[in-house]
Predict the structure.
Amino acid sequence: EVQLVESGGGLVQPGGSLKLSCAVSGFSFRDSSFHWVRQASGKGLEWVGRIRSKAKSYATEYAASVKGRFTVSRDDSKNTAYLQMTSLKTEDTALYYCTGLSTPWGQGTLVTVAS
Amino acid sequence: DIVMTQTPLSLSVTPGQPASISCKSSQSLLHSDGKTYLYWYLQKPGQSPQLLIYEVSNRFSGVPDRISGSGSGTDFTLTISRVEAEDVGLYYCMQSIQPPLTFGGGTKVEIK
């Protein structure tokens, strides 16, 4: 069974940092791209960024709203993807999901940026 | 950025009746590899989004065959041939042909 489990969310002050993790099982992790998608309360889905596989040179792309502040990475030996978030803003408050697009989604991890 | 436009915003459907949702993209989603990168997701109340359809018309594992996807280029449709109570939720289309990946605004389906 394919499972993605996000963790690492929490309450952080504006300007702060947080690192999210996405542990993947039951799926060919190293051959796949992984994406982070967020959803503010009562709002739609917003793509945050992705990291491609080793075969695609671990290329990363980001939404304009997070470029320069967020970094997607991965550790193929641990079947885990990460989202490092810095210079957090109140508008980054959302439920953050990871997904392989053609995989189930995780349950999400809540990030709240507030003073 | 590719803009994804979904219609209608909401649908109220009698159980057993059909329903369809339209999704239009501002650019063709047909890749040079021959695939068209259009996905459909359903987010049931209080749950994470779940994949229904990938690459326009391929049903994900476990998705009932009364749910189908069609279309090409820039025009796509999700069809539910006979709506059931479990189909309630928000439906999103999404393109992944080029970053930034973009979602439609969502269509809320409810039961009459």
Observations:
- The beta strands of chain A are 3-7, 10-12, 18-25, 34-39, 46-51, 60-62, 70-75, 80-85, 94-99, 109-113.
- The interface with chain B takes residues 35, 37, 44-47, 50, 61-64, 97, 99, 101-108 of chain A (CB under 8 Å).
- The radius of gyration of chain A is 13 Å.
